[in-house]
Amino acid sequence: GHIQLPPPQNVTLLSKDFDMILTWTPGEGSPPDVAYTVRYESQERMDKWIKVRHCKNIHSTSCNLTCVLPNFFIKFRARVKAISGKLQSPWVESQFKEYYLDVELAPPVLNVNVQENVLHVNATFPLATCVESFSWMYDLNLWEAGSEDKKQYESIFRKNTVTIDTTALRGNYCLSARSSFQSIGFKYSKFSQPVCMLLNRKG
């Protein structure tokens, strides 16, 4: 009988924080030195499985495929097999996903520059270089701490700075932002942790 390695389990293509990642768990009874190799195919060229150079004989149980994708507007899937010495497991395939439709966003990180009577706010996104050209946006909220009344600044291009006149604001104010992206409908991340600051304190 031909001895095979246990195949990887829970093979899942998932999007997290702007990336598309294949994840899996080791098959039950896998040897400690087990390594993995990943390939993918896209719906433009079915039955052509393409090697992923940075995920060949790797020991981790995930592979970032974001910048490997030839086309962000076409569904693709990936597969993974286990390797140990001369033994190999069968390939195990993921479901199909499409970056453009299935991408999940992360909250942006806010950079706030406080000057006299004005705030300059911009957002940075943890984006892979290959997806920087997409029209990522963000929404910004400003409110007085303890108040439910939020001033909203919506659909700001990722690289643009919001300038807020603070002349009339006194006390503790907070800012929070979320990433947004328009595919078929709008997608949003969760809001970022609030950044709070004291404005125009008479001292």
Task: Write out key terms for the chains shown.
203 residues; mainly beta; Immunoglobulin-like; 2 domains; five-stranded antiparallel beta sheet; 47% strand; INLR1 protein
What does the model show?
The chain starts with 8 loop residues before the first strand and ends with a strand. The protein contains 1 helix and 16 strands. The strands form 4 sheets. Strands 3, 4, 6, 7 and 8 form a 5-stranded antiparallel beta sheet that branches. Strands 11, 12, 14, 15 and 16 form a 5-stranded antiparallel beta sheet that branches. It is mostly beta strands. 23% of the residues are buried. The chain folds into 2 domains: 9-98, Immunoglobulin-like (Sandwich), CATH 2.60.40; 109-199, Sandwich (Immunoglobulin-like), CATH 2.60.40. β11 and β12 (150-157) form a beta hairpin. The radius of gyration is 23 Å and the shape is elongated.
The main sheet comes to: 5 strands, antiparallel
What is the CATH topology classification name of the largest domain? Answer: Immunoglobulin-like
- Top-tier CATH class of the largest domain: Mainly Beta
Specify the CATH homologous superfamily of the largest domain: Immunoglobulins
How many domains? The number is: 2
Could you tell me the mean pLDDT?
A: 94
Radius of gyration from CA coordinates? 23 Å
The secondary structure category is mainly beta
H/E topology pattern: EEEEEEEEHEEEEEEEE
CATH architecture of the largest domain: Sandwich
Count of separate DSSP helical elements: 1
Report the span from N to C terminus.
84 Å
Using DSSP, what is the number of strands?
16
Which spans have pLDDT < 50 for at least 5 consecutive residues? none
Q: Helical content, roughly?
A: under 10%
Based on Cα principal axes, name the global outline. elongated
Bin the strand percentage: over 45%
